[in-house]
Amino acid sequence: MNDRARQATRLEAIGGRYDPWLLGAALALASLGVVMVASSSISQTASPFYYLIRHVLFLGVGIGLAVWAMRTELKTIEHYNQLLLLGCVGLLVLVFVPGLGQSVKGAHRWINLGVSNFQVVEAVKVFFIVWLASYLVRFRDEVNATWTAMLKPLGVVVVLVGLLLMQPDFGSSSLLLSITAGMLVLGGVNMPRMFGPVLVGLPVLAVIAIAEPYRMRRLTSFADPWADPFGSGYQLTNALMAIGRGEWTGIGLGGSVLKLNYLPEVHTDFIFSVIGEELGFAGICLVIALYALLVGRAFWVGLRCVEMGRHFAGYCAFGIALWIGLQSFVSMGVNLGLLPTKGLTLPLISSGGSSVLMTCVAMGLLLRVSYELDRAARQVALRGEALGDVPASADPAAAPSRDAAPVSATAAAAAAQVTAPAVRGTSRLRQRIEPIFERMA
């Protein structure tokens, strides 16, 4: 075996590790979710553990899907980005197919899988993030320089939003638009050009929001829920009373009164209110801290990937961070009376099979990003040591074994040829990305 082949073999043998902060935050939120689903749903059906058993089963399947995502190379996932986009459109159309699509309370958001209904928008969120991340990699320079490249993903998301509004699902539509805008900004889009679509889109969304009577009732009840506490303001008034009863430390796990058929959707949309009632202000702060850790660490991992030239991985991390951060903010804001009522669950905590499954897949993808980032850092450290740029003791975690064979000058030259373009590309991308983060600070 020649020196170059030996060097390649050593690089391929290097593994990575999953980010412990991401893994710990996700496990903590999922564990808290199991406890709170058990507590909040115990009086919802004749069988006190019906929703708990269902939630645990879906969580088990979701963990299996997460492990699969964690063990799948990102380049393999990126290869199927176009099929994933077609899957987004196909899934949103399937809900209108008679016999396959399921209607609940007048909304066509589910498809019948036989053993359970599946809310397709949850899969659309993951698929679309992967496609948009791939698009930003392939056209990152054009997105910053031309109108066409910037408007193409906006046109795609408008089509998806149109299908969502036909279901109707205004909450998920707004979330998908926000994720798209956030990923475009983090992908280096020209900000003055971005203002045009935003200025056009906001009035359109406002008109859509007030066009339906039920959405208008939500807006008016949000402004003053106590004006009609037994009608349009029923959900919010009960949610506020539940949180108010919790005070500083809560009334104790399992002691909620508002969950006893007073607060609707208590194990899904309004589970945060039960947390506030039973665990108090301390429990609310714990939940917010866990989400802040998860989302903040995801952004950090994404930024590290971008700095190392791993753009697809970085944009996937950005998209998942935006999704989890925005959805958790909206869900908690609704429970606290800060935002109008939307049908968005609290990620990893609320019951709901579709949400649990696809959030677990997203966490698996995010952990895979962290794994490949750590693996790439170790490989760069090995290359740097081969070139004499990084001493062996500079990064103990990234340093190769002392028993490894010495690297020849030929392998060092090959490593230099591999790393130099990535370093130059990273430098150019840093010059484009860093001003965006400085403006956001």
What does this structure look like?
The protein has 441 residues and is mostly helical. The protein has 16 helices and three strands. It has helices spanning 3-13, 20-40, 50-70, 74-79, 81-94, 120-138, 140-145, 147-165, 170-186, 191-211, 213-223, 234-246, 271-307, 311-335, 353-387, 409-440, and strands at residues 101-104, 107-112, 117-119. The chain has a three-stranded antiparallel beta sheet with strand order 1-2-3. Strand 2 and strand 3 (117-119) form a beta hairpin. The protein is globular.
Total number of beta strands: 3
Kindly, what is the distance between the CA atoms of the first and last residues, rounded to a whole number of angstroms? 52 Å
Please give the order of strands in the largest beta sheet: 1-2-3
User: Structural class given helices, strands, pairing?
Assistant: mainly alpha
Estimate percent helicity. 55-70%
Q: What's the Cα radius of gyration?
A: 24 Å
**Major sheet size, sense and barrel closure:** 3 strands, antiparallel
Number of domains: 1
Overall average residue pLDDT: 82
Query: What is the ordering of alpha helices and beta strands?
Result: HHHHHEEEHHHHHHHHHHH
Outline the low-pLDDT stretches.
390-429, 434-441
* Count of helix runs: 16
Shape: globular
* Strand content bin: under 5%
